Amino acid sequence: MQEVIIAPSILSLDYSKPSEQLNELAQSHAKWVHFDVMDGHFVPNLTFGPDLLKGFKKALPQKMDVHIMVEDARRYADVFMDAGADVLTFHSEALNNDIDAICSLCAHIRERGVLAGVSVRPKTSVDALLPHLDQIDVLLIMSVEPGFGGQPFMEDVLDKVKKARAVIEERNLSTRIEIDGGINDQTAKLAVSAGCDTLVAGSYVFKKDIAAAVDSLLCQ
Ligand code: DX5
Ligand code: ZN
Question: Looking at residue 102, what is its pLDDT?
């Protein structure tokens, strides 16, 4: 397995003191910053547009890990790549779990020099994706229903992680397995032992000392 990467989710940043929080985040050991885009349709919440991504990219040294929870995945993949996404993850369900459409959008993302990610909701199977993991840079397993931070971790999604990890090891692929939702120092242990190498964490990181929280996730 590759080294573990922590991707703090700025959905949970304390926006009453943004500069302070961004400075702490910039100095932490987080390698990626997770940027959740929600359109109010695919999920019942609204978040950030592309101009905010440009601002965060200027303010932070980390790679921008953009997770688009939107119905029109093709359109917004380009919008957020234009704005500087380093990783662009869209939802399988937004393309009706159509594997040809998923692989074609991944190829388009890679052609633009961006890492291609595919995400699944907790109840969506990964089986159709497994033979195509060589075309996917990041498999993002949701461990809460997407839409809001601060929800409890759904442990049963780890079965999907184990299945994907077995394929990645067997085929010697470099695909990352990222997990998103309810990650804290306890659930991070479970996720890493099931085979996750990339941990998104929102409320756990921003509710306390950011650098210390990131380090506690790295010590799994
Ligand atoms: C939820 C988002 C997550 C969220 C995680 O839809 O995709 O990235 O920020 O927040 P926590 O870590 O608080 O569950
Ligand atoms: Zn996310």
Answer: 98
Report yes or no: 42 and 188 within 8 Å, Cβ to Cβ: no
C-alpha 131 – ligand 2 centre gap (Å): 24
pLDDT one-digit tens code per residue, 93-130 = 999 999 999 999 999 999 999 999 999 999 999 999 99
For the CA of 201, the closest atom of ligand 1 is 12
Q: How far is the CA of 138 from the centre of ligand 1 (A)?
A: 17
Tokens found for residue 123: 């109840």
65 in active site? no
Mean pLDDT value across residues 159-168: 98
Dist. CA 212–CA 184, nearest whole Å: 12
Q: Residue 55 phi/psi, 5° resolution?
A: -65, -45
Which of 151, 179, 198, 210 for mutating ligand 1's site (highest number of atoms within 8 Å of CB)? 151
Give the model's pLDDT for residue 208. Answer: 82
Of 36, 65, 137, 197, catalytic: 36
Atom of ligand 1 nearest to the CA of 151: 14
Here the tokens at position 44 are 């019942």
Mean pLDDT computed over 143-171: 97
**What is the pLDDT at residue 220?**
66
Q: Which ligand is nearest to the CA of 199?
A: 1
